[in-house]
Every structure is written in structure tokens, then in C-alpha cells.
Design a protein that fits this description.
Helices cover about 80% and strands about 0% of the residues. The protein is an all-alpha fold.
């Protein structure tokens, strides 16, 4: 019950509605809001991945279709731009997979050493949810914390500490280096792109920020060289 949850975890008072009346309704509404946001973000991620895979497979036919709408004098530059953009998207996918694998492996090693139940499952979930910026980290850490709480309070605190520290390491060390290498972006460019994308368009903005930022140098080189 809600009262038992409050007694077991006092910090939950900051998340649950106050007052004795309407506690269950407030908690249900809170959970439904989180579920709706998570479902929307997951659906948008799946749609983006499906669309990306489709474009990578059918890129030649799509390219020829797009060329019909481009003035003839710009077609050579447009072909070069789209070809480079396709290569950048491939690098982005490779970088994301590398970062997710690193996350899954390290998470499994730490959770298994702490004897957290279902450590392998939690590690796989962390790797998959790593594709979703911010929300993925929150969901995976909450799941791990719930299972860690069944072991002991000490393990719970250690797991929370691990997720917070590893998230900082991944955000400021692993991701910038992985994406900076795969997409030839500086660490500063990667960090700024993710922050700006997330601020402007949330999850989808963060997902699209890196490939868009990586495509810009190509546009500058092909289209703006004479002006800059």
C-alpha cells in the first residue's frame, strides 16, 4: 500500500502527494503520467530507428526520388551531401551500439558483484535503454534500485551511487569519446549538441542532435566554402 511504501522509503514523501485523502489517486495519476511519457518516448525512438533502417536499406531509390525535386544545377552537390549524411548516420548507429555495449557490460559486472537479483536482465535493459537519453537512464536506474532494495539498504545505496557516477562518466567521458571518434566531432561539440537538442525538442532532439551536428561540417564544406 501507499502507507507501507512511505514507511519503508521515507524519501518517497517528496514524490508522493501529501495528505491522507486522495493518496492512492495521486500516486496512480503520477504513475500514469510517467507511463505515458515513457510510452511516447519509446514509440518515437522505435519510429526513428525503423525510419533510419529503412533509409539505409532503400537509400538509392530514395536518393533518386529526391533528386527529381532538386534544380539540375544543384544536383551534384546534393548527391554529395546526402551520401555524406548517410555515412554519418551509419557512424552514429555504430557509436550508439558501442556505448550501449559498454554500459551493459559494466552494469552487469557491478550488479553481479553486489549480488543484485536479475543482474543480467538489468544490464541488458540498461544497454537497450541507453538509446534513449535521460529517460533511459532514469528507468534503468529505478528498476535496479527496486531489486537492490530487496537485498539490503547498503546494496541499494551502492547501486544508486554506481548509476549516478557511471551516468556522469558516460555522459562526459564515454559518449563524447565514442561519438567524437565515430563521427569526427570534438568532445565539446558532442556535449553542446546533446544539451541543445534535449533543451529544444526533448528526447527526439537529443537523439537527432548528434547526426545533425555531424552533418553540418559537410554542408559547410560543400555549400558554404566560397562564403566562409
Amino acid at each position: 500500500s501507499v502507507d507501507e511504501l512511505r514507511a519503508s522509503f521515507p524519501m518517497v514523501e517528496y514524490l508522493l502527494p501529501s495528505g491522507s485523502e486522495g493518496q492512492a489517486d495521486g500516486l496512480t495519476e503520477y504513475a500514469m503520467s510517467v507511463a505515458r511519457s515513457t510510452t511516447t518516448a519509446t514509440g518515437m525512438l522505435v519510429l526513428a530507428l525503423v525510419l533510419t533502417v529503412y533509409l539505409l536499406i532503400e537509400w538509392k531509390a530514395t536518393l533518386e526520388w529526391l533528386m527529381a525535386f532538386v534544380p539540375e544545377r544543384h544536383r551534384a552537390k546534393t548527391r554529395r551531401t546526402l551520401a555524406d549524411a548517410r555515412e554519418i548516420v551509419c557512424r552514429y548507429m555504430v557509436g550508439t551500439v558501442i556505448a550501449s555495449v559498454i554500459t551493459a557490460v559494466i552494469t552487469y559486472v557491478v550488479l553481479a558483484s553486489l549480488k543484485v537479483p536479475a543482474a543480467l536482465m538489468l544490464a541488458l535493459i540498461s544497454g537497450v535503454l541507453n538509446f534513449i537519453p535521460i529517460i533511459g537512464f532514469i528507468l534503468s536506474s529505478v528498476l535496479a534500485a527496486v531489486l537492490a532494495a530487496t537485498v539490503s539498504t547498503k546494496v541499494l545505496l551502492l547501486v544508486i551511487g554506481f548509476y549516478l557516477i557511471f551516468n556522469a562518466i558516460e555522459s562526459y567521458l564515454i559518449a563524447p569519446n565514442v561519438f567524437g571518434y565515430e563521427m569526427e566531432l570534438s568532445n565539446l561539440a558532442v556535449l553542446v549538441a546533446v544539451i541543445v537538442g534535449a533543451e529544444l525538442a526533448g528526447v527526439m532532439g537529443a537523439l537527432l542532435a548528434l547526426p545533425i551536428a555531424a552533418i553540418y561540417p559537410t554542408i559547410e564544406r560543400i555549400w558554404l566554402r566560397d562564403r566562409l
